[in-house]
C-alpha cells in the first residue's frame, strides 16, 4: 500500500535552554562557547554532599511558557530524580519533573495551508541539561572527552500529544514554537548552538483504524531540516514494513545525517526504567497566585495571535501579516506607522497595505543593507507615515518616494521638508504641466502625427517623454489627461 493508505501520527519533544545567566541548581554561568569545563562547580559536577538551589529566574521563565501555552498549572509541584548512567551525567541522575510537571494540557496553535490547528501539549516540565561528550575525530584517538559546561543548564521540555499528521504540521509547529519562545524571551532558540533541540516519535496505522501502531522515537535531530528528513524516511520505512506484514518494534532510532537514514539505537525504555522518585534535596514549590498574575500581566500577544490580528484588523494578506510579525520590533514599527498615518490620509483602509508594502520592501532592504536593527533605524515610524502620506495625497510620486527614503536615512529629516527643499514635490499645477506638454509635443512632431493618424500606440512613448521632461515630478495621471486633451484637439 502507498503511504497515503496510512494515518500518520507524530508527536514532538522540544528541549529549550532557558535564557538565564546561571545554571538550574548552582550559580555557574551558562555562556555558550566558553573553554571546556571552565563553568563548573561541585554542584554541577556532582560531588558528594553538595545541595541544589533552585534558580528562580528559570522557574519563572518555565511558568511563563506554561501560561503562554494555556496549560493547567499545579498549585504545588516537585522535582524528581530520573536515574540513569551516562558519562556526561556525573551525578548519575538528572533532576527533572515526572509526577508534577509545571504545566499540563495546554496547546500550541499552528497554521498550515489547510488552516489553523491546535496541537495539544501533554506537559511542560523543567529539568537540567547534561554535559557534552566530544569524540576527537581523525586523530586515531581511542578516547572521548567530556565538557561539563552544559551540565546543569536550565532546560525546558515541551512534550506534545501525538496530534500532528503530516510534515507541514510538524514544520509549522517547530516554527511557531521557536518564534513564540524567542518572542517571549524564554529561550534564544539557537538550534546551531543546541539551545533548541527536537526529538520526534512517529507511528503509522491503516486509514481510520482506532488502534495506534507501535511508536518509534527518533533522536539526534540537530536542525529543522533533520527532523523533517528523518520523519520522511521513517514514514516510508514503516509503511514498507507494514506492507510486508512486518512488525514495527517500539524502539529508539538515531538519525544518521550522512547516510540519510534512521538506525536502531535501543529498544524503548519505559518510565519505570528510570526509577523516578521525588528529589529529596528539594522541597515542594507552592506556586503563588501572584506569580501567575504577574506573568499573565506581562505576557505580550503571541506571534501567531498577532499575525491573525493583523489579518483581521488591518485586512492584510496572510503573507504580509506573516512577514511583519516575524520579529516583534518590526510588528511594533508597522503598527506605530499605521497609527501615525491614520489621521493624515483620506483612506485609512488602504493605508495599512501601503505601509506594509513599504516596511516589507524598502525598509527591510535598507535594514539588511545597512546591517541595523529596526530599533536603530533613523526613519522613525512617524517619519515613514509622513512619507506614505505624501504619496497618498499625490504630493510625490512613488518613484520620488523611493529616492527620498535613503535621503531621510542619511539626513534624519522628514520627507516633506526634504521634498520641498530639493524641489521633489510633484507638480499637479495644470498650467505648469500644460506648458511642459506643449514643449514635448513640439519636440516630437512625428509621434504626434502618428497618433493623430490613428497609431494610438505611441501614446505611451509620449507619456514617457513627458515624465522625463518633468524629471518624474509631474503627477502621471494629470500628465496623461492633459496629453490626451491636447492630442485629440
Ligand atoms: Zn555549577
Please sum up the structure shown.
This protein has 489 residues and is an alpha+beta fold. The chain is built from 15 helices and 16 strands.
Shape field: elongated
- Name the beta content range: 15-25%
Tally of domains: 3
Mean pLDDT: 91
Helix count equals 15
Q: Give the helix/strand class.
A: alpha+beta
The whole-angstrom Rg is 31 Å
Tally of DSSP β-strands = 16
Residue ranges: pLDDT <50 for 5 or more in a row?
A: none
DSSP helix fraction: 25-40%
Bound ligands = zinc ion
For the largest beta-sheet, the strand count, sense and barrel status come to: 9 strands, mixed
Q: Distance N terminus to C terminus?
A: 75 Å
Folded structure, characterized:
The chain folds into three domains: 3-295, no CATH class; 301-421, no CATH class; 430-488, Arc Repressor Mutant, subunit A (Orthogonal Bundle). Strands 1, 5, 6, 7, 10, 11, 12, 13 and 14 form a nine-stranded mixed β-sheet that branches. A three-stranded antiparallel β-sheet has the order 4-3-15, with no helix packed on it. Strands 2-16 form a two-stranded antiparallel sheet. 34% of the residues are buried. It is an alpha+beta fold. The protein contains 15 helices and 16 strands. The mean pLDDT is 91. The structure holds zinc ion (ZN). Zinc ion (ZN) binds at residues 23, 26, 28, 40-41, 43-44, 152.
Amino acid at each position: 500500500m502507498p503511504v497515503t493508505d496510512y494515518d500518520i501520527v507524530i508527536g514532538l519533544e522540544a528541549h529549550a535552554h532557558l535564557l538565564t545567566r546561571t545554571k538550574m541548581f548552582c550559580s555557574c554561568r551558562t555562556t555558550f562557547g566558553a573553554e571546556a569545563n571552565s563553568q563548573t562547580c561541585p554542584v554541577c559536577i556532582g560531588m558528594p554532599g553538595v545541595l541544589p538551589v533552585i534558580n528562580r529566574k528559570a522557574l519563572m521563565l518555565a511558568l511563563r511558557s506554561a501560561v503562554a501555552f494555556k496549560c493547567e498549572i499545579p498549585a504545588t509541584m516537585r522535582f524528581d530524580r530520573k536515574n540513569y548512567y551516562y558519562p556526561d551525567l556525573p551525578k548519575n541522575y538528572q533532576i527533572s519533573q515526572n509526577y508534577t510537571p509545571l504545566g499540563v494540557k495546554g496547546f500550541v496553535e499552528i497554521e498550515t495551508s489547510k488552516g489553523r490547528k491546535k496541537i495539544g501539549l501533554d506537559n511542560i516540565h523543567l529539568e537540567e541539561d547534561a554535559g557534552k561528550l566530544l569524540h576527537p575525530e581523525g586523530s586515531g584517538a581511542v578516547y572521548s572527552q567530556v565538557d561539563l559546561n552544559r551540565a546543569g543548564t536550565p532546560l525546558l521540555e515541551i512534550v506534545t500529544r501525538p496530534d500532528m499528521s503530516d510534515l507541514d504540521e510538524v514544520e509549522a509547529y517547530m516554527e511557531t514554537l521557536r518564534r513564540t519562545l524567542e518572542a517571549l524571551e524564554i529561550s534564544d532558540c539557537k538550534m546551531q548552538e543546541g539551545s533548541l533541540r527536537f526529538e520526534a516519535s512517529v507511528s503509522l496505522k491503516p486509514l481510520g483504524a482506532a488502534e495506534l501502531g507501535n511508536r518509534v522515537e527518533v533522536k539526534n535531530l540537530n536542525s529543522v531540516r533533520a527532523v523533517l528528513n528523518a520523519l520522511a524516511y521513517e514514514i516510508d520505512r514503516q509503511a514498507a514494513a507494514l506492507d510486508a506484514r512486518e512488525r514495527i518494534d517500539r524502539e529508539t532510532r538515531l538519525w544518521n545525517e550522512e547516510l540519510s537514514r534512521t538506525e536502531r539505537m535501543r529498544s524503548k525504555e519505559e518510565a519505570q526504567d528510570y526509577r523516578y522518585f521525588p528529589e529529596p534535596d528539594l522541597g515542594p514549590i507552592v506556586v503563588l497566585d501572584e506569580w501567575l498574575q504577574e506573568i499573565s500581566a506581562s505576557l505580550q500577544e503571541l506571534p501567531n495571535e498577532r499575525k491573525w490580528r493583523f489579518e483581521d484588523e488591518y485586512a492584510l494578506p496572510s503573507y504580509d501579516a506573516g512577514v511583519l510579525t516575524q520579529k516583534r520590533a518590526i510588528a511594533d514599527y508597522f503598527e506605530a506607522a499605521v497609527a501615525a498615518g491614520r489621521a493624515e490620509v483620506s483612506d485609512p483602509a488602504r493605508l495599512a497595505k501601503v505601509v506594509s508594502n513599504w516596511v516589507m520592501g524598502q525598509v527591510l532592504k535598507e535594514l539588511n543593507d545597512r546591517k541595523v536593527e529596526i530599533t536603530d533605524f533613523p526613519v522613525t515610524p512617524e517619519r515613514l507615515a509622513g512619507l506614505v502620506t505624501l504619496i497618498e495625497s499625490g504630493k510625490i510620486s512613488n518613484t520620488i518616494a523611493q529616492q527620498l527614503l535613503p535621503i531621510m536615512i542619511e539626513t534624519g529629516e522628514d520627507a516633506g521638508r526634504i521634498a520641498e527643499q530639493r524641489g521633489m514635490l510633484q507638480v499637479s499645477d495644470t498650467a505648469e504641466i500644460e506648458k511642459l506638454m506643449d514643449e514635448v509635443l513640439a519636440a516630437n512632431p512625428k509621434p504626434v502625427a502618428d497618433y493623430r493618424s490613428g497609431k494610438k500606440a505611441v501614446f505611451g512613448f509620449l507619456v514617457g517623454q513627458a515624465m522625463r521632461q518633468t524629471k518624474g515630478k509631474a503627477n502621471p495621471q494629470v500628465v496623461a489627461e492633459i496629453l490626451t486633451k491636447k492630442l485629440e484637439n
